[in-house]
Design brief:
single chain; 154 residues; Growth Hormone, Chain: A; 5 helices; 0% strand; disordered C terminus; cytokine activity; cytokine; Ciliary neurotrophic factor; PRF/CT
Length: 154
């Protein structure tokens, strides 16, 4: 086991948006889940942008890979968010994709920022896993033609 990984639960946030009850999630309509996913990705994109900004000021030569990796993750989240927004528009949902502009200041030292980064990445992984089934269903991977999605201009 990775040293210290058993204590990572101490850093979990019980008010995390990823803690939506699984049973409740299963019984939600597709459009409700899509909106929750989209809102989560909008929030996570903002948090990732803040992480990239914080780490760009503090990268050491040994952490260049981390900074590049964070930028790649941010680009992927932005692309996924854009795809979800397009699907939502296609489904006729009214979606506000303007990011929350409230500026969240750094909470403390470098360790605190790394703990916050851990929380953001953990929440991101949860939402990606949670949204895969819905995205596949919406994109028609269950045998339905995807032609409507690819040919529809938004």
């Amino acid at each position: 086991m990775l040293q210290g990984s058993d204590t990572l639960k101490l850093f979990d946030d019980p008010t995390d948006s990823a803690s939506t009850d699984i049973e409740k999630w299963i019984h939600m309509a597709e459009d409700e889940r899509l909106l929750l996913n989209l809102n989560a990705f909008l929030d996570l994109e903002r948090k990732l942008e803040r992480m990239v900004e914080q780490h760009s000021n503090r990268t050491y030569s040994t952490e260049d890979g981390l900074f590049g990796g964070l930028q790649d993750v941010l680009a992927q989240v932005a692309a996924l968010k854009g795809q979800m927004a397009q699907i939502g528009v296609f489904m006729g949902l009214s979606i506000d994709t303007t990011p929350n502009t409230e500026d969240v200041k750094s909470k403390g030292d470098e360790f605190d920022e790394k703990v916050e980064g851990y929380r953001v990445l953990k929440e991101l992984s949860f939402w990606i896993i949670r949204s895969v089934r819905d995205m596949r269903k919406l994109l028609g991977y269950n045998g339905v033609e995807t032609e409507n999605f690819s040919n529809h201009e938004i």
